[in-house]
Amino acid sequence: MIGSHPKLRPGEFNRLVEQAIARIPFEIRRHLDNILISVQPRPDRELLAEMGFAPDEELFGIFTGVPLTERSPADPPLYPDTIHIYQEPLEAFCRNREELIEEIEITVVHEIAHYMGFDEDDLIALGYG
Q: What is the CATH number of the domain that holds 24?
């Protein structure tokens, strides 16, 4: 399988996402209690446009919701906070299953950081950029 891009059935990919989440340190993972993790084949064009991305942007995941740093106790979020993980771009980027598992974990941690209020510069400084 080395050198070939992994193509997994959705159920198998979902299990890899669950395994990657289980390996994330508890200090980070504990922030997932109120977040929905949604695995999709690829980003929706409307979502990309809404978020200001180009239609052909390589996107592995995205956080949609209100970051903790921007929340007001008086105005709870209208929609659940969600981390979207995109299977096809991840599979196309990774050369093997091990790389795919690692990239899923990096993507989930990256999106949790956005939920916690980190921006791209913060993530780069932490090694997740």
A: 3.30.2010.20
Domain presence at residue 1 = no
Q: Is 92 contained in some domain?
A: yes
pTM summary value: 0.82
Number of domains in the chain: 1
In angstroms, the Cα distances linking 34 to 6, 68, 91, 122 are 30, 11, 27, 23
Indicate whether 34 belongs to any domain: yes
Instruction: Encode the chain (129 residues) as per-residue pLDDT tens digits.
Output: 445 677 888 899 999 999 888 888 888 788 787 889 999 999 988 888 888 888 778 899 999 888 888 888 777 767 788 999 999 999 999 999 889 989 998 898 888 888 888 888 877 777 666
